[in-house]
Amino acid sequence: MFTQNSKKSTTLQEGCVYIVRQPYPMVNTSIVIPKPLLQRYVSSMELRNIDTGFSEVRKPLHAHHATNMSLFIQSDLPRFISYNNQAPAFSASDYGNPLAGLMGIQTYMRGSFLFKGRYKILNINFQPSGFHELFGIDAALLTDKLYNAYHVIGDKIRELHTILQDVADDRMIFALTEDW
Asked: Would residue 11 be called left, alpha or beta, if left means φ above 0 and alpha means ψ between -120 and 50 degrees?
């Protein structure tokens, strides 16, 4: 494990935990490259620890080239603001708490999440065809959409998400997710 300044680049290696220091002291991101068996499906896993205190922080939802799943651990739901008078891409009532979101390829900027308080978010970033190969769901059905992962993947993801709610150690979160 090593600490890396986010302005530098490096080659990520399997099994290492990379801690990326963001320019904001309120966000710390750990990145793990999965075991070789999973690398065909998952490009990386990221665990973000966010503490905004009493400030509200905006995180834009930019266009994104791959499918990813976000599991909120011991965290409240963020708010979401849509841009350009589009229909909301995210509604907390569609997800429940804790949030388990599944986002397909995004072809344009959807809006912004608004964070206020403390959050722990595990992002599983899939290879371009990895989500389809693992779950048999056509990636085209996910394009420009945000879904409740429970509704798409089913009870298996709910089981993992429930277990992760009681885990404080970041390394254990990664290990349990890889074993899942």
From this structure: beta
Q: Give residue-wise pLDDT tens across range 114-155.
A: 889 999 999 999 999 999 999 999 888 888 888 889 888 888
pLDDT for 68-88, tens place per residue? 999 999 888 887 877 766 554
Q: What mean pLDDT do residues 83-102 have?
A: 65
Tell me if 67 sits within 8 A of 126, measured CB to CB: yes
Give the CA angle between residues 85, 87, 90 to the nearest 5°.
120
Residue 139 gets which letter from DSSP?
G
**pTM value?**
0.80
User: 126-131 contacts: CB < 8 A, separation 24 or more?
Assistant: 126/41, 126/42, 126/43, 126/66, 126/67, 126/68, 126/69, 127/39, 127/40, 127/41, 127/42, 127/43, 127/66, 128/65, 128/66, 130/40, 130/41, 130/42, 130/43, 130/67, 131/41, 131/67
